[in-house]
Amino acid sequence: MNKVYQKNDINNQASTCQGLIGSIRLANTNTFAEQQIRPFSHPDTVLLYSKSISVALIITGIALGTLANLVTQLPFVLFYGPLSFIHDDKTRIHWASNRGSNSYHNTMYSGTNFNYSFNGKQYQNVLPDQIQKFVVMTDIHQNNQYTSTMSTNYDFAVFCGDYSNSGKLSEFQNSFQGMPTKPLLMAMGNHDEPGNFSQVNGRGKNYFQKVRNLGFYFIHVQQSTPIVDLEVDRGIQFILDNIDIGVKADHVFIVVHHPVFSTGEFGSHQYFSQKIESLIVDHPELNIRATFSGHDHLFSAFQKGRQYFFVNGAGGGGIDQMTDSSYGVRKWPREELHGALPTVADNCYGYDLHLDSWMKFTRTEVNILKDKIVYDVRDLDSDVILQSYEQPI
């Protein structure tokens, strides 16, 4: 890996390289260079990581002070993006210049509020000091019908996994083409695991992110489709090892692809469910408000004590019919369910905590108010709120 140091005039903006693209198509060659821009402590200095020998040859003999001007003049085809990822106290802008496996690029910006230009267009990255609303979606499965038509009346979005069908990055592209450039946070799904999801997400399977006064633990408990006790232990241990940062948040949420409780095809996994229950009971200082998951392609809501457990309805992938379940105990003859249900097997653990289920494409909208949190479940086809759940704080 060649390292190139360059002075760049930032004009006192948080955007470290305004207008600088991270993908260069070289003349008469198919070689691409991926550059990750990371700010140093000095505000006028950035470090460019060049992953291409070809770029290093071009750089030879060119004054480094003029390199940014050269780069900004080079045309490229934008396939999708930019997507804005919240990354610790920074922002990572992700995009792809075509469908090739070497055309995925990430640029790291310091801070969360800045203006930047990208492929000839101006963008504004904004994360307000006081979060009022974030939205939760899951299981896009490379169908951008709902992500491309999202309204922008939210502060940031959380996704619970399964953006692809087989882990291909091109499938991820399909899921997010045309999506608003609002800040994002993402968990890994079982369909994303076969591919190099970290190339998009820039994170490991388990990570913590603080967003103003909110804290999010993202954990992964699956290997392909089945849930695995070892992965559960690793996910729970990650939370336990990072309690010291979680307690600094006023409201904490756990995001995991596999549901804690569910009326869907895969249902509950008692070992995982009980681990989450114990975590909440043993560590009240964490202020865990809710868990968000997906995987079962229908919406379900459960409540135990003051905590809510949401299975978010599919955001593009096909709806799993309750009547098509391979488990006979869950062949419910209705499109929606309400109230407590009989608990007759391990995979039905938690049915006594059940509130509501719908076979619909949904989005969960989380409204952070002064004295309560309100969870609105919106039907993505009718744009109607199916149910609201209020949580005093």
TrEMBL record:
Membrane spanning residue stretches: 53-80
Keyword Phosphoprotein: no
Highest taxon of source: Eukaryota
Domain Calcineurin-like phosphoesterase: 133-297
GO-annotated molecular function: hydrolase activity
Keywords: Membrane, Transmembrane, Transmembrane helix
Protein name in UniProt: Alkaline phosphatase
